[in-house]
Amino acid sequence: MEQVNTDIALLITGTIVPNSNFVAHTDVAQRRQEYYDNLVFYSNAFPGHDLYFLENSAYDLASDAAFMQLLEERKITLLKFPVSDKYTQGKGYQEFEMLDKAIEQLCGKYLSFVKITGRYRVHNLQRLVSGPCPGLVADSHKKFAVTQTNVFYVTGEFYKNNLKGLYLNVNDEKGVFIEKLVYQVLVNKNLFHEVKLFPVNPVITGISGSYGGTLNRNKLKMRIRNIERLVLGWMGKKEFLTEY
């Protein structure tokens, strides 16, 4: 039996050619470059860790010599998945469809996984995932009843027991987003004892796939939010209670 690696694996998701009518950022060349640049960034930030690039579009990566050379030189494993036939279900459906298959394949090798939306650069990711993972480390918001999924830290066991197959209920067209479904699972199964907020705000840059705008946040509000994280930690709370 293969020995379980107590370290983490990074799962960097990608769809170079969009396959959903809920995507605003559709420039294929720009998307390809964003994935390329961020794979360089994450491989530099996590030397010695195993990185996997999960990609599920019609883009012919095998014919992109520069991209394939990057993967080889940086020792990044490509997990290529078929184009999803659920065009109208949205991005969350297709992304978690890949995640289910990847974690099922890899959970015997790693205890924990860091999932990152590949076009987004999480500048302080090392700090976000520096501690042990109780089950799930992610930012949840009570007012909006969502758990953020652009970056999260999860054990394979927690994912298999609670998040596997969840994507089958996603329907962006009807407003049933993966972020809402993850939050519902945490509430309905009373899982917050296995959940933590990130210790600090994720510092993320990039272009939103949903609305095409920047991900930059108001700096003052983010300072307040970091203080709030400390207070909530002292209170034993695992989700944000207010929004501003």
Give a written overview of the molecule.
The protein has 244 residues and is α/β, with parallel strands linked by helices. It has a single domain, classed as Spore Coat Polysaccharide Biosynthesis Protein SpsA, Chain A (Alpha-Beta Complex). It has 7 helices and 11 strands. The strands form 3 sheets. It has a 7-stranded mixed sheet with strand order 3-2-1-4-9-6-10, with helices on both faces. The longest helix has 18 residues, at 28-45. The protein is globular, with a radius of gyration of 17 Å. The mean pLDDT is 91.
Summed up:
Helix content is 34%, strand content 19%.
Architecture blueprint of SSEs:
Blueprint: E1 5-14, H1 28-45, E2 50-55, H2 65-73, E3 76-80, H3 91-106, E4 110-117, E5 121-122, H4 125-128, E6 136-137, E7 140-141, E8 146-147, E9 151-155, H5 156-163, H6 178-188, E10 195-196, E11 204-205, H7 219-235
CATH topology: Spore Coat Polysaccharide Biosynthesis Protein SpsA, Chain A
What is the mean pLDDT? 91
CATH homologous superfamily title: Spore Coat Polysaccharide Biosynthesis Protein SpsA, Chain A
**Shape verdict:** globular
Strand order of the largest sheet: 3-2-1-4-9-6-10
Poorly predicted runs: none
List keywords for this structure.
244 residues, seven-stranded mixed β-sheet, two-stranded antiparallel sheet, 34% helix
